[in-house]
Specification:
alpha+beta
Length: 162
Amino acid sequence: MSPRARSARFPREPGAPAPLAVELPRRVGFGEADPMGIAWFGRYAVFFEEGAAELGRRCGLSYADYYEAGLRAPVVRYHVEYFRPLRLDEAFTIRCALIWCEGARLNFEYTLTAADGVPTAAGQTVQLLVSAASGEVCLTPPPLLARCRKRWRAGEFAALQA
């Protein structure tokens, strides 16, 4: 991984469990590339979102779970670093990791890696949990997030731990 990508990581809290992570194989589709055959830069947010959505489904933090719990999880920070372009029909892997945080927020880190093992981009997002009814930001972790963290600490997501 690039030194820049390492510097963009969230700090790890002492005593926190290891991050939860998924890896998804992917290929750059025709509609995702510009006329030069390079993945359009705006698609990287979608690639990151695919990883976050899959990780959420596996640990009880899917968008359906948010809606059922009366929550929303808007992105309040998005950062990406491009190392080399992905090209039309190129195979790559999306790696998304959820980093432990005590607050009512979700810290995700992403790495896109080419088939040759070279990172092509890295990034991070922060999502705050918000009440769907009031629109107010949750100041403490809501029950949905508290349940996930309890299961995380108990080792129920060992298969996802990075």
